[in-house]
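Quick start: load a record and inspect it. Here is Amino acid synthesis family protein:
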Amino acid sequence: MPEPKVRKFVIISEEIHHEGGAPVDHPPRRAAILAVIENPFVGEYHQELTGFMEDLKPLGLEMSRRLIEHLGGASAVTSYGKGAIVGAAGELEHGALWHVPGGYAMRELLGEAKAIVPSSKKVGGLGARLDVPITHINASYVRSHFDAMEVGVPDAPRANEIVYALVMTTGGRVHARVGGLQASDIKGEDGLR
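Running the structure step on this input writes:
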């Protein structure tokens, strides 16, 4: 397969000081990096797609490095997620190709994070938005880190493009108070608890 042809990268960043309660001393940040690429499968049905996952691995690593640097280093990152928006001439399966290159790149660069990387994907037109689910990097059951970040690019995806997204945060939800497993109680044995 050909090397992915990137039209643009976009970084979206938020710093959350409060959600109605008192401002916090250390506001968590959440950020997303999006790559708008040409979809090499547009125009006809392709039975074999998996080779493109290998071609996407360097892109996943580059995006992960940029996002980790943006958030202040791997030790600052506590949660993650990934997603894809496929242009109208593509198919949902073209977005699913991001599971391995996007997820494994983040896990590798974050020091072998244990939890599965949650994801979402859809087919959409210009300016389509996607809610990317987020969970703790080492234990999916940490409720304070159940979250999502809405992402999108105003001029993408064009019909022949795909937008691939990675999301990371430096903390859980501000004022989280719904109980459950606390980040301080993670055992780190199975990616769940």
